[in-house]
Amino acid sequence: MSTSVNKRENILQSALAFFAERGFDATTIPMIANDAKVGAGTIYRYFENKEVLVNTLFQHYVELFTNTLVEEYPSDHSLRDQFHHLFQGMVRFTNEHEHALYFIKTHNAAYFLDETSRKQFEKLLAILRNFLDQGREEEKIRDLPSTALIAIIFGGFLELHKLIRAGEIEASEELLEGVEESCWDAVRTHK
Amino acid sequence: MSTSVNKRENILQSALAFFAERGFDATTIPMIANDAKVGAGTIYRYFENKEVLVNTLFQHYVELFTNTLVEEYPSDHSLRDQFHHLFQGMVRFTNEHEHALYFIKTHNAAYFLDETSRKQFEKLLAILRNFLDQGREEEKIRDLPSTALIAIIFGGFLELHKLIRAGEIEASEELLEGVEESCWDAVRTHK
Amino acid sequence: MSTSVNKRENILQSALAFFAERGFDATTIPMIANDAKVGAGTIYRYFENKEVLVNTLFQHYVELFTNTLVEEYPSDHSLRDQFHHLFQGMVRFTNEHEHALYFIKTHNAAYFLDETSRKQFEKLLAILRNFLDQGREEEKIRDLPSTALIAIIFGGFLELHKLIRAGEIEASEELLEGVEESCWDAVRTHK
Amino acid sequence: MSTSVNKRENILQSALAFFAERGFDATTIPMIANDAKVGAGTIYRYFENKEVLVNTLFQHYVELFTNTLVEEYPSDHSLRDQFHHLFQGMVRFTNEHEHALYFIKTHNAAYFLDETSRKQFEKLLAILRNFLDQGREEEKIRDLPSTALIAIIFGGFLELHKLIRAGEIEASEELLEGVEESCWDAVRTHK
DNA sequence: GATGAATGAGCGTTCATTCAT
DNA sequence: TATGAATGAACGCTCATTCAT
Question: Which residues form the HTH tetR-type domain (chains A, B, C, D) (predicted)?
Fold first, then answer.
């Protein structure tokens, strides 16, 4: 039981790391099994097949990320504060789950995602969209489709994250503040 | 004669579309052959193997994109004009080559790229880096690593492009102007 | 456990028979798998690839044959007795391993043999060469290159063996004694 | 016409060299076509397929060799002289057709030979068998199956020939005389 | 429940053969 | 007649998945 939970968790962690680093298609079940220190067959006791595994992983982390963004959401603070909360959520989530956001980003349009995964991802987008739509009504956010703005924030942050992961730049406090400011300037109106 | 050119071109176009949509590893030679309406073996008359095919494609489009950015570059105009030139280059290139930029973005760090491909891609980055470094000296561009800013522009634009390709938003003149402005605001200093 | 050993052994036996009968290039993995009653993939659990399989087989039987020739070698008997020992070794080895010597003969110069295989085969030749060189010093063996004499014995015996395997002649005690005498007369001096 | 004859001849010569050096299965049609300086398709104007080509070649050279042995056969000379004639025939044939005898030897039991080829080869053996049977009646040839004796001569001579081809020993007059004597001693009775 | 040996579908690739030119 | 571009069957090999232990 406790063993089982651990095994399942080990499998998920190993799979996450490989999917993020090499992608779903370049990752083999033996690789995951080996890294998770379980038999290859054991993976199939916890996950029907490789696609179920990747969807489970995707849904889990999208939900976790969604919760991170939603928790203690400062609805009654300024729009800038709300943006800060969201951006900090990204940062914190990435710190806590090294591979998760990059995995989500590189696999969110993949051919093997099922309905549930796509819907889960939609829910995440909805939160960001709500924020932006509200801001646009107040004329504090640009009159561009929310999806486009999300793309800029998400895309920017995650390409940055990729560089940090690759060791090409260092994730200092200053850098992150600068990037947050940059993203905010990308999104807000400059009357 | 003309047939051969067409076959080679068909293979390249089919491969580009699949690589962009599913990635290199998830794309099989039979998929490409079928889509290009040639026999599987025919692909090997034009390309030594799958890796040569993907490198050929990568180098071709990185070079084409680089040329697009470099052509008629307004060196003596304002930084904003230069940015416009670069952004318009992206837009034009993407209009002319639907899958190319997305393919470049999703494969530029792939394990199967050869030296030439990597160097070719470095040349492209150098152009963008030069632009940003120059602007930073003039204190018109934020004091963030160029790679990070490139990530924001590239990432933002391409996530947007992905949405356009997916048909979720429409690529109107206004939208693109708005996104350009948004990217510019992400990158420039706001005294 | 015992199953695994058997599978490996079955694969080796099937491969040996095909390699001897049709040659390495004309033998396909599916042929071997089918004959050994294993899945094609199973072969790769035991042998890294087809070349490793053929080299394993080659080395195994060359060593076995070498040992057969060396065991209880009558160094202090007459040259004729030594020849008898070697010839009997060939006969016995061929009786115990139907296809092995023919396989060795037809593949000993093949392009796919690795260093170890070549060295192993050299060791076998060295034994025969030593015997002949010693005899030539005593002027009991013809003054022809040892390699040439080995070729005559080996070639003669194995062409004979081929006929026996093909069922065209029967391997009686008398026949073998006659052939031994014939080979000995081919090799020795007739003062 | 003359061109055609040449093309056909070129194809046969190139095929012979490759078959002798690498074997039938390791030889590709493009290899032959390239070496013969004809298009790959051209080969199929002269030979229905690869197997017909190899059978044509086999039959041609077996017949040629047979004729070499039969020509000017000294029926009324001594057995030893007849043997000399046969052995000289082998030598001469090998000098005139570098790859032919080795090709015949390495392919005479191949799975792809047709009925005609096998019969042709049988005819060649019959000549040698006749010689031996006659000698045995006179009690000048050992009482061993003719096929076995042929195997010794053929096997010995051709293993020797292989060494010469490989450059491991030189084909001097003396060597050949010595080998002939050796073969003769292998075959004759030593009352 | 956990394992990993075994499987075979399907991959990338080669090459005998065909056929439009 | 001669060609070589094109084909697809079949190769060697990998790996998701199964199942006896």
Answer: 5-65
